[in-house]
Amino acid sequence: MAGYVEVNGVNTWYDERGDGDPLVLLHGALTDSRDFTGSLDALAGRFRLLLPERRGHGHTADVPGPITVEAMAHDTIAFVEKIIGGPVRLAGYSAGAVVALWAAVRRPDLVDRLVLISGAFQPNGMILRPTPGAAPPAALLAAYAEVSPDGAEHFPVVIAKVARSASEDPGLEPGQLNTVRCPVLVVTADDDIVTMEHTLELYRNLRQGQLAIVPGTSHLLLHEKPELCTSLITDFLTADPAPTWMPIRRATPPSAPAAPATAAQPGHHQPEQRNLPPGLSRPAQRALAAAGYTTLDRLAEVSEADLSQLHGVGPQAIEQLRQALAAAGLCHSAKS
Description:
Elements: E1 2-7, E2 10-17, E3 22-26, E4 48-52, H1 69-83, E5 88-93, H2 95-106, E6 111-117, H3 138-147, H4 155-168, H5 174-177, E7 184-189, H6 196-204, E8 209-214, H7 221-224, H8 226-238, H9 282-290, H10 296-299, H11 304-307, H12 315-327
Parallel strand pairs: 3-4, 3-5, 5-6, 6-7, 7-8
Antiparallel strand pairs: 1-2, 2-4
Helix pairs in contact: 1-2
């Protein structure tokens, strides 16, 4: 089912497919929702897929004024509020990943899980950017002309607006990435137009980041290895995070100093690991596992204030954890 909805004064076209929990897919720059044909559109078998096309893209007409990341992020927020009315899973590709990240920073309460495919949080992380005045590839122009209500002759205007945004938008500061509270999967090609160094900086500044590097692919990884990309993203969106056996990055909560990792030695007693209390909600279980808090002893290293910042850990879960710690003769750290 496809139709239009007005968001922030923009008559926005979107496609809707499937049933289940909502999943919003955001396409790249100068393209449209067909970016996901043959790959993530297969998720309609598990989710209620929503594929909006942003201002000046696809079936959505251009509007007066610039096309900025900030404006498109606010359009996305308004779309989610109007069509879904609550938290969603959000996935973006290329420029769509940038928009998705900005939306999650601006409204972390609206994003339950986030997938960022070949996106950058600052323009200087990109090796290639749109250039105003350059002739677009014939296939790109043909795809635009096929669906745009503005006609092929308007495409240079959109290209100029997108190019200006790519050169002038300030991007996000690394510290702002930490405001995203939900689990985030960062997906990149091993030969992408976003530098690997920038992708690693993005991943390392996320509270609950996971990283997938798709081998043997370029920026068009969704078309080059659609099955692998879809499988990685499906697993992230549907499976509860499980604690790893030998954590390094996730071994230390942000508020606690790192404890030296030592292997068990013969004759040395290893302390019993006291498990988390049963009855915690699944969102709380997922959030705690992703942050590395898998035992009561680990929880005692962190403050309640820090725990409450984890997406999915609400007042009820905090009270359950407080009681379990007290019963074990423990308490939360006073540091925050």
